Amino acid sequence: WALRIPGREPVRGRNQLVLDFTRKDVRDYIFEQICGILDQGKIEYVKWDMNRSIVDVFSEETAQGKVTYQYVLGVYEFLERLLQRYPDILLEGCSDNTDALDRLRIQYGTSFFYPASTVCSHVSAVPNHQTGRSVSLHTRGVVAMAGAFGYELDPEKLTEEEKASVREQIRKYKGWEALIRRGSYYRLSDPFAAAYTAWMFVSKDRSRALLSVVMLEMHGNMTVSYVKLKGLDDTSVYRDTESGRRYYGADLMEAGLPMPVEQKEYPAYQIELIRET
Fold this sequence. Notes:
Radius of gyration: 22 Å
Shape: elongated
Low-confidence stretches: none
Order of helices and strands: HEHEHEHEHEEEEEEHEE
Largest sheet: 6 strands, antiparallel
Structural class: alpha+beta
Number of strands: 12
Strand order of the largest sheet: 5-6-7-12-9-10
């Protein structure tokens, strides 16, 4: 029932194999097993981990070249059946990569298909358990505020200074949560090509916006990066709530905002703009 290539020992990841969800008999059996558990009580939340990479791409019942495609369709069919039977259940799909820089690209790609309100974005511990990379708590927080914000770490291991920063991040997110969940989302750069990643949320009436920027590269004699905004009212004046500076919407969208050139790795910025006129 596992995906495997005939004549070869299957590759184990996390001491696991991958079930062949291209097969209906496999899906039916697993469905019965899971329903047997869910029917035992009032279960409201299921976390569906997809942390095991697929490497043995072969199925005796599926045309080669279509295995991964049919596998995904099988997973979708399975989840649809599950939600039809349990319409009130909250089903979270998980793929465990919480490295802040990797998440910038993951969230960028995910944004083409899913709204930010459905994407769980977490601040995790450093060095990251997958990449070994250390990114500042501030930058990790900015990245995680691109969706349903949360933490995935042991708070007892935080310093008092870090705990204070966490409280401040939570305070800020609560103030911006409605804007992030319900506002219009704009991609301002391609994290696969640009020296920075930038995105923003704009309220439906264009009276409020939140710009987030993470610098990905640092070089000697670095030139200033100008981030061009989107979705604003070009004739209105917007105020930066932190600095107090005022800008015309047209200037922000045509010329852009200059980002500071700092001598540190992966600095991040959040700028809240309020329309004044």
